[in-house]
Specification:
This protein is α/β, with parallel strands linked by helices and 355 residues long. The chain contains 8 helices and 17 strands. The chain is 19% helix and 27% strand. A hairpin with a 4-residue loop joins strand 6 and strand 7. It is globular.
C-alpha cells in the first residue's frame, strides 16, 4: 500500500539569506542540481550543462504565458486613501470584470469606487466581496474597452513576489527578467520561473542537438503559491487556471513518448497543464480548458518523464508536486543538500533537473 503523506512532512528549514533577491547576471547563469531517479544520485552542475542531457527525439515543453503588470496602486473615493490592487484573473473581457486582492481591505466595500493613474484616468467599482481580502471589480475608462491592457502596461507594476520586495523595491529591469524569452500569451500574474533560465543561445544549442522545443499556455495565478492550511492533503483545493495545448505540441510530445525518448516539462505549471489533458491511453491531447489539478504523492505521471523546476517554499503545493515526481526521500535529501551547498531559492533562484 502506498504511503499517505501529510503536509507537515514537507517542511524544511531555509535560512532567509538563501532567498534569491535578484536574477542571475545573465540568463543561463544559475546553478542546476541534477537528480537521477534511476541511479538515485544528486549532482551539482551549471544550468548551461542542460545541453548535455537532451538530443535527437527528445521534446522540451515550455509555458509561453506572459506576466501582466498585476500590481496596481489606487486611491479610494472621498478619503483618497492609498489602496493596493492585485489582479488575480479576468472574469469577463468585454465588461472588464476582474477578481482582485485589495490591501487594506477592511474599508473597501461593495459599491465603493477606486481610482487609478494620473488624473484618475481609470476607475473601478467594487461589485462583490469574494474573500476577506478578495473583491470583484468592474473597470471603466473613456477608451472603453479597446485599450484596457494599454492602461495596465502603462501604470501597472511587475508583480515581483513579496518575499523579494520585502528586501528591495521593484526595479525597471524586473519587467524584462520576470518574463521568459518566449512569453507571448498575456494572462499570468506570476512567472513560470523554470523558464526564466533559458537564453536564446541555450535553446538554439538544444535544437542543434536535435531536441524539439515546443510551447503550451497556462496562465499562472496565485493559487499555486497559496498557503495550504490542512494537514490532510486530500482536502486541499487549488484555484483554477486557464491552459491551452495546441496540435503541434501534442504531436511532438506523443512522438517522443512512443519512441521512449525524453519529454521535459519546464516547470510545474507546464507539468500541471500536461497532466490535465491526457487521453485514456495516457497520451497527450489537444485542448483548452481550466485546471485545478493538485498533484501530491502517490501520483502516477502520464506525460513528462523529466522535470526542470526551481527550489520552492516549505510545505508548498510546488514542493509537494516536485516530491511526487522525483520521490519524497530523494527530493527532500536534495533540498537538504541545496541548503548546505548554498543554492539560491525561489523565483530568481537556481534550479533542479529531475531525470
Amino acid at each position: 500500500m502506498s504511503e499517505i503523506y501529510k503536509l507537515s512532512q514537507f517542511e524544511y528549514n531555509l535560512p532567509e539569506e538563501r532567498i534569491a533577491r535578484f536574477p542571475s547576471k545573465e540568463r543561463g547563469g544559475s546553478r542546476m542540481m541534477v537528480i537521477d531517479r534511476a541511479k538515485n544520485t544528486i549532482e551539482h552542475k551549471q544550468f548551461t550543462d542542460i545541453i548535455d542531457y537532451f538530443g535527437d527525439g527528445d521534446t522540451i515543453v515550455m509555458n509561453n504565458t506572459k506576466v501582466i503588470p498585476a500590481r496596481l496602486w489606487a486611491t479610494k473615493e472621498k478619503t483618497r486613501a492609498k489602496i493596493e490592487v492585485f489582479l488575480l484573473r479576468e472574469l469577463n473581457k468585454e465588461q472588464l470584470i476582474w477578481d482582485v486582492i485589495v490591501d487594506p481591505a477592511r474599508k473597501i466595500r461593495v459599491g465603493n469606487k477606486i481610482y487609478f493613474g494620473k488624473d484618475d484616468i481609470l476607475v473601478a467599482e467594487v461589485i462583490d466581496n469574494t474573500t476577506s481580502r478578495g473583491r470583484t471589480l468592474r473597470f471603466f475608462y473613456d477608451g472603453y474597452p479597446e485599450d484596457f491592457r494599454d492602461y495596465l502596461f502603462s501604470f501597472g507594476e511587475t508583480p515581483i513576489p513579496r518575499y523579494i520586495t520585502k528586501f528591495r523595491p521593484v526595479e525597471e529591469s524586473d519587467s524584462e527578467r520576470y518574463q521568459t524569452i518566449i512569453a507571448k500569451e498575456i494572462g499570468a500574474v506570476a512567472a513560470p520561473t523554470a523558464g526564466l533560465h533559458f537564453s536564446r543561445e541555450i535553446l538554439k544549442r538544444l535544437q542543434i542537438k536535435g531536441a524539439e522545443i515546443t510551447e503550451l499556455t497556462l496562465h499562472t495565478g496565485l493559487g499555486s503559491f497559496s498557503k495550504i492550511d490542512v494537514e490532510d492533503l486530500t482536502k486541499h483545493r487549488m484555484d483554477t487556471e486557464y491552459f491551452k495545448i495546441n496540435a503541434e505540441t501534442v504531436e511532438l510530445v506523443n512522438e517522443s513518448k512512443k519512441n521512449n525518448k525524453k519529454v521535459l516539462s519546464v516547470g510545474t505549471t507546464t507539468l500541471r497543464a500536461l497532466e490535465s489533458s491526457v487521453t485514456s491511453s495516457g497520451m497527450l491531447k489537444e485542448g483548452e480548458s481550466f485546471t485545478n489539478l493538485f498533484i501530491y504523492p502517490p501520483y502516477e505521471f502520464n506525460v513528462p518523464n523529466c522535470l526542470l523546476t526551481n527550489f520552492h517554499l516549505p510545505s508548498s503545493s510546488l514542493l509537494i508536486l516536485t516530491c511526487s515526481f522525483g520521490g519524497y526521500d530523494l527530493i527532500m535529501e536534495a533540498y537538504r543538500q541545496a541548503v548546505a551547498e548554498k543554492y539560491n531559492f525561489y523565483s530568481y533562484g537556481d534550479c533542479m533537473l529531475i531525470l
